Amino acid sequence: MRMEQVFGNALQALCTSGENMNLLLCSNAVRRELAHSDILAMLLSPEYPGALERLNAFLGLEMLKAPPCGSRSWTVRRESRSIDILIEYQATDGERISLILENKVDAGDQDRQIERYVETVKEDRPQDTIVIGYLTPFGHSPSDQSAGIYKKDVRCISYVKGIQKWLETSAEHDESTPRVKECLDSYREFVGEMMKEERARKAIREWFCQNGSTEAKFGDIKLVARIFEDGFLNRGVGLFLQELQAKLIEMKAFSKKDLVEPAIDGNLIDSDEIGFSVKIEPGLAWGAYFCKEGRGFLYTGLFPVIGWDERLASATKQCDKKKRQQEDPWYLWKETKVAWRSADFLVEDGEIQGWVESHWKTFAEDFADYQKLVAEVTTNKLI
Q: Rounded distance, CA 222 to CA 201, Å?
């Protein structure tokens, strides 16, 4: 397919008729994951008319098939222990259910994310049956690294077939409550707009995967420009990380067998971060990652991998004399000494390769520094 056709189809999909006013569509939040999670939590809460019917319609989605709720009293929590949405209820047969709903629009998976959430809920509510829902635009599966031992238990839900269908069905049942129906219809249009943009992105991404370059000219269209910028940024940062990783292995900072799969994790087109990581101890890894938030920044640090030991992580934090940033899921991290930003990576390959030659020692020293910190904790038996 010619480039002009791809962009023509993509941009046509983004056009809205404007026949109905919808304040959500002018909120600049169509792709904001937190906004979607807030709205979904409200629609699933017991506080509004038609709540039980709406909840059970959601639980009964073909992609989810969770036991129906048999009580008019249930709890919907937002960001409880970092879980996007947690629904606790009693099923019609008396079984107690905890539904973990992980919502992913643009963000990538975190290491052991789903596995950690399940373990947390098991600890808090050991008597509950746990249902895991993973919500994405097209219903794709979580990474093995995120789901861990619960990969087979994850039920994948899509916005395009699951959420839109649920909203449409719920709106039909709420004809007697105009205000609720209006909210459901508004959010359905909001989701529809996100999916139009998602299809446009997908069409352009697929074209780039199949073709190398283009001479086609097009106007100043924000979406296309953003995707192009993300694509070029992903290529530049990805090249830097690949070259850096190879150089560190060549110079014996660490060995290839110590790399955590995949060798390069994430991308800057569908998510905010890309990088690589190296095991230091069972359960702890050192990583070098680039985050495109704001102007973008490159950072290094320690984070958990499968089989992590919470005591080791906690002791490592306590022994950190350099007072690095301390945030979950990265136990310790800091920006690199050279403050690279997104714009820096939009350059020729030779310049990027030159940076690796100039700065690989800094990364090798950083790795050794973290390695020494962890060794201090384990050798002195501070855990």
A: 12
Closest-CA residue to 130 (of 166, 86, 161):
86
Note whether 233 and 292 are within 8 A (CB). Answer: yes
Q: How far apart are CA 54 and CA 57, in angstroms?
A: 5
Best-predicted range by mean pLDDT (95-109, 172-186, 268-282, 329-343)? 95-109
Q: Can you tell me the distance from the alpha carbon of 116 to that of 180, in angstroms, rounded to the nearest whole number?
A: 35
Q: Is 321 exposed, middle or buried (0-12, 13-18, 19+ CB in 10 A)?
A: exposed
Phi, psi of 274 (to 5 degrees): -150, 145
Instruction: Give the residue extent of every domain in the chain.
Output: 3-201, 229-379
Distances (CA, A) of 111 to 78, 83, 130, 196, 303: 21, 14, 20, 30, 8
Gap between the Cα atoms of 279 and 305, Å rounded: 8
The sign of the dihedral angle between the CA atoms of 83, 87, 90, 93 is negative
What DSSP character marks residue 160? Answer: I
pLDDT tens by residue, 311-354: 776 777 777 666 666 665 556 777 877 777 777 787 777 888 88
CB 306 within 8 A of CB 284: no
Structure tokens at 297: 């920044």
- Round to whole Å and give the CA distance between 337 and 340: 9
**Cα within 13 Å of Cα(312), Cβ side:** 20
Q: Write out the E strands in the chain.
A: 75-80, 83-90, 96-103, 129-136, 154-158, 265-266, 273-281, 284-291, 297-304, 332-335
Token pair listed for 291? 């985050």
Report the C-alpha gap between 56 and 54 in whole angstroms. 6
The encoded tokens of residue 152 equal 């087979």
Q: How confident is the model at residue 371 (pLDDT cuts 50, 70, 90)?
A: confident
Given strand 284-291, what is the order of strands in its sheet?
265-266, 273-281, 284-291, 297-304, 332-335
Q: With contact defined as beta carbons under 8 Å apart, do 80 and 125 qualify?
A: no
Would you call the peptide bond into 178 cis, given omega within 30 degrees of 0 as the criterion? no
Contact 293, 271 (CB under 8 A): no
